[in-house]
Specification:
seven-stranded parallel sheet, 7 strands, 38% helix
Length: 230
Amino acid sequence: MTKPWDGVITADDQERYDRAGFGRPSGIGTRPALLIIDVQYRTLGDTPKPFYEALEDYSTACGQVGWDAVAHIAELVEVFRKNGHPILYPHVAPKMSYDSGTLGAKVPSIMSIPEQGYRIPPEVAPAPNDIMLPKKHPSAFFGTPLASYLVDLQADSLVVTGCSTSGCVRSTVVDAFAYNYKVLVPFDAVYDRSETVHKVNLFDMGQKYADVMSTSDVIRAVGALPARTA
């Protein structure tokens, strides 16, 4: 069976985790919420194009792989809205000079993104009742009211999408796991600037913190749940 980390994770790597009992499915609850993390032009590029061309738009852009993921995220948005499940948008707000800190030291270019870069493309744009969550750090939980919103929504599971697989997606998944949420990561609805890093992090999340599956499998799982009315 083809796995999203094939070509990077060896059979021996997989065997080591299998022997230790990792990677078992945790499933989905009955009240999922969809997180769309940092799907902004600054992580994509202004239009679909190869990686190095996208860098001409923003130094933080991932290019075509991001736009491919956007198409799958749009499918999830449609299903979640149709069934009344909540959608939340953790996103990076425009950086101010006092936001620099350690991140500004590690990635100075992130401090000079123009306003257009922080906008969300129309394919996955928020609706009036969706929840916007500006954040300053990788995890969507750190320094934000995300946990409070999820408690109020009585969410019991999270579908985590967006960018980057190795950064904000991963750190959010780990924190969600720590809060005891069931977590699903659609591997074709998250993206990163490196295929190797993307695949390694999908494998590691799948072994420890989340169920990693295709968007179509997530849609089937969500579609099998009762529509939410309140």
